[in-house]
Design goal:
By secondary structure, this protein is mostly helical. 64% of the residues lie in helices and 4% in strands. Helix 6 runs antiparallel to helix 7.
């Protein structure tokens, strides 16, 4: 009996893969969601029939705290970039061209840059570098800081070093 199920499953996988190769990118995305929903529904029915719904409930309860972090996790998966923000991660510039990465306005004044880094306007190049290093050790995104603050600190450093070159 098991070998019959194995053969049927092999044939089903072969047919699905053959159909998958002929789909356009847009239809593949729609088909992927359909497959996820069908497999999830089948798994749910199987778990209900076998009395294992409590395991599913525990798994969902364990995943709830991670749902809040999903947009942050998604930026590490190449296929999901822009999925949660509604864009593809590219920003148009003045010429209409699309550039990847954050848009910097470069409108920070030297006074603002000095306030951000905690230095005076008469500080040296080395003072700017040391203040930047000190703040980045505290505010880097890998150490619990935010991307926004790290970008502002980097922008302040570049503004001050540009004027001290």
């Amino acid at each position: 009996m098991h070998w019959i199920l194995g053969i049927a499953l092999t044939i089903a996988v072969f047919v699905v893969l053959k159909q998958w190769g002929g789909l356009s990118a847009e239809r593949k995305k729609a088909a992927t969601w359909k497959v996820v929903l069908v497999v999830g529904g089948a798994l749910l029915v199987f778990m209900v029939l076998t009395g294992r719904v409590h395991a599913l409930t525990a798994a969902v309860a364990a995943l709830i705290p991670l749902l809040r972090k999903l947009p942050e996790i998604a930026r590490f998966v190449p296929g999901l970039k822009g999925f949660f923000s509604g864009s593809d991660g590219a920003n148009p510039d003045e010429s209409g061209q699309r550039q990847h990465g954050p848009v910097h306005n470069n409108d920070m004044s030297e006074r603002e840059a000095c306030e951000i880094l905690g230095v005076t306007a008469a500080c040296s190049r080395e003072d700017v570098i040391m203040a930047h290093r000190r703040l980045m050790q505290k505010m880097h995104p890998d150490r619990g800081g935010s991307d926004y603050l790290a970008a502002k600190i980097n922008e302040a450093k570049s503004v001050l070093l540009r004027n001290r070159a």
